[in-house]
Prior knowledge:
Blueprint: H1 2-25, E1 52-53, E2 59-60, H2 63-73, E3 75-82, E4 89-93, E5 98-102, E6 113-119, E7 130-139
Parallel strand pairs: 5-7
Antiparallel strand pairs: 1-2, 3-4, 3-6, 4-5, 6-7
Amino acid sequence: MTFRRSRARAYGLLGIVFLLGSTLLGAAPHALHSNAATSEQDQQTPAKTGRTKSSNGQQVGSRSAKKAREKKAGIHLQGVLIEGGAECQRFRASDNRYYTLEGDLHGFHTGDRVEISGNIPQVSHCMQDTPIHVQSIRKVQPRDAGSR
Protein backbone atom coordinates (compact mmCIF):
# COMPACT_ATOMS: atom_id res chain seq x y z
CA MET A 1 0.00 0.00 0.00
CA THR A 2 2.84 2.41 0.74
CA PHE A 3 4.24 1.70 -2.71
CA ARG A 4 0.98 2.80 -4.32
CA ARG A 5 0.84 5.99 -2.23
CA SER A 6 4.40 7.02 -3.10
CA ARG A 7 3.72 6.28 -6.77
CA ALA A 8 0.54 8.35 -6.62
CA ARG A 9 2.48 11.23 -5.05
CA ALA A 10 5.13 11.01 -7.77
CA TYR A 11 2.47 11.11 -10.48
CA GLY A 12 0.78 13.97 -8.65
CA LEU A 13 4.03 15.96 -8.62
CA LEU A 14 4.59 15.20 -12.29
CA GLY A 15 1.11 16.45 -13.03
CA ILE A 16 1.81 19.70 -11.19
CA VAL A 17 5.11 20.15 -13.02
CA PHE A 18 3.41 19.46 -16.36
CA LEU A 19 0.63 21.92 -15.55
CA LEU A 20 3.10 24.67 -14.60
CA GLY A 21 5.26 23.96 -17.64
CA SER A 22 2.35 24.07 -20.05
CA THR A 23 1.13 27.30 -18.44
CA LEU A 24 4.51 28.93 -18.89
CA LEU A 25 4.86 27.65 -22.45
CA GLY A 26 1.37 28.87 -23.21
CA ALA A 27 2.86 32.38 -23.48
CA ALA A 28 5.23 31.17 -26.23
CA PRO A 29 4.29 31.65 -29.90
CA HIS A 30 1.82 29.08 -31.20
CA ALA A 31 4.25 28.13 -33.96
CA LEU A 32 6.16 26.14 -31.36
CA HIS A 33 3.17 23.89 -30.75
CA SER A 34 1.93 23.39 -34.30
CA ASN A 35 2.77 23.94 -37.93
CA ALA A 36 0.55 27.01 -38.03
CA ALA A 37 1.82 30.09 -39.86
CA THR A 38 3.44 32.73 -37.72
CA SER A 39 1.82 36.08 -37.15
CA GLU A 40 3.40 39.34 -38.22
CA GLN A 41 4.64 39.89 -34.66
CA ASP A 42 6.54 36.60 -34.70
CA GLN A 43 8.37 37.40 -37.93
CA GLN A 44 11.72 39.14 -37.69
CA THR A 45 13.02 41.82 -39.99
CA PRO A 46 15.81 40.43 -42.15
CA ALA A 47 19.27 41.78 -41.47
CA LYS A 48 20.39 44.58 -43.75
CA THR A 49 23.37 43.63 -45.84
CA GLY A 50 25.89 45.71 -47.71
CA ARG A 51 26.85 49.32 -47.16
CA THR A 52 24.76 52.38 -47.68
CA LYS A 53 25.74 55.24 -49.92
CA SER A 54 25.71 58.90 -49.03
CA SER A 55 24.06 61.53 -51.22
CA ASN A 56 27.29 62.02 -53.19
CA GLY A 57 27.57 58.29 -53.98
CA GLN A 58 30.39 57.40 -51.56
CA GLN A 59 30.06 54.35 -49.38
CA VAL A 60 29.48 55.04 -45.72
CA GLY A 61 30.95 52.57 -43.19
CA SER A 62 29.22 51.74 -39.97
CA ARG A 63 30.60 52.32 -36.52
CA SER A 64 30.40 48.62 -35.73
CA ALA A 65 32.55 47.82 -38.77
CA LYS A 66 35.19 50.24 -37.46
CA LYS A 67 35.13 48.59 -34.04
CA ALA A 68 35.41 45.15 -35.65
CA ARG A 69 38.53 46.27 -37.52
CA GLU A 70 40.00 47.68 -34.27
CA LYS A 71 39.39 44.34 -32.52
CA LYS A 72 41.19 42.40 -35.24
CA ALA A 73 44.01 44.80 -36.09
CA GLY A 74 44.65 46.05 -32.59
CA ILE A 75 44.78 49.52 -31.20
CA HIS A 76 47.82 51.74 -30.51
CA LEU A 77 47.44 54.79 -28.27
CA GLN A 78 49.46 57.27 -26.25
CA GLY A 79 48.11 58.89 -23.13
CA VAL A 80 48.16 59.09 -19.36
CA LEU A 81 47.14 56.57 -16.72
CA ILE A 82 44.57 58.31 -14.52
CA GLU A 83 42.56 57.63 -11.37
CA GLY A 84 38.95 56.58 -11.37
CA GLY A 85 38.78 53.04 -12.72
CA ALA A 86 36.24 50.92 -10.86
CA GLU A 87 37.87 47.55 -11.63
CA CYS A 88 40.68 48.37 -14.07
CA GLN A 89 43.28 51.11 -14.56
CA ARG A 90 41.73 54.09 -16.34
CA PHE A 91 43.56 55.64 -19.31
CA ARG A 92 43.04 59.01 -21.05
CA ALA A 93 44.33 58.88 -24.63
CA SER A 94 45.91 61.90 -26.33
CA ASP A 95 42.61 62.47 -28.20
CA ASN A 96 40.85 62.84 -24.78
CA ARG A 97 38.97 59.54 -25.06
CA TYR A 98 38.81 57.35 -21.98
CA TYR A 99 39.60 53.64 -21.82
CA THR A 100 40.10 51.05 -19.10
CA LEU A 101 43.11 48.77 -19.32
CA GLU A 102 43.17 45.11 -18.42
CA GLY A 103 46.19 42.86 -18.39
CA ASP A 104 49.75 43.30 -17.14
CA LEU A 105 50.74 46.97 -16.87
CA HIS A 106 54.36 46.07 -15.94
CA GLY A 107 54.43 48.29 -12.86
CA PHE A 108 53.09 51.48 -14.48
CA HIS A 109 50.56 53.39 -12.41
CA THR A 110 48.52 56.58 -12.17
CA GLY A 111 50.27 59.63 -13.59
CA ASP A 112 52.59 57.75 -15.98
CA ARG A 113 52.54 58.80 -19.64
CA VAL A 114 52.57 55.62 -21.71
CA GLU A 115 52.08 54.16 -25.16
CA ILE A 116 49.95 51.04 -25.28
CA SER A 117 49.15 48.40 -27.86
CA GLY A 118 46.33 45.97 -27.43
CA ASN A 119 42.91 44.97 -28.62
CA ILE A 120 39.32 45.49 -27.57
CA PRO A 121 38.07 42.27 -25.96
CA GLN A 122 34.58 40.91 -26.59
CA VAL A 123 34.10 40.31 -22.87
CA SER A 124 35.72 42.26 -20.05
CA HIS A 125 35.44 42.61 -16.29
CA CYS A 126 36.19 46.36 -16.56
CA MET A 127 33.03 48.24 -15.66
CA GLN A 128 33.39 51.52 -17.56
CA ASP A 129 34.70 53.11 -20.74
CA THR A 130 35.98 51.02 -23.64
CA PRO A 131 38.21 48.21 -22.36
CA ILE A 132 41.58 47.45 -23.94
CA HIS A 133 43.45 44.22 -23.29
CA VAL A 134 47.05 45.45 -23.06
CA GLN A 135 49.57 43.46 -25.11
CA SER A 136 52.45 45.93 -24.71
CA ILE A 137 53.06 49.09 -22.73
CA ARG A 138 56.03 51.45 -22.63
CA LYS A 139 56.84 54.82 -21.09
CA VAL A 140 56.89 57.89 -23.33
CA GLN A 141 58.20 61.38 -22.63
CA PRO A 142 55.70 64.01 -21.50
CA ARG A 143 54.55 66.34 -24.30
CA ASP A 144 56.09 69.52 -22.91
CA ALA A 145 59.44 67.95 -21.87
CA GLY A 146 61.04 68.60 -25.28
CA SER A 147 59.74 72.20 -25.61
CA ARG A 148 61.73 73.64 -22.68
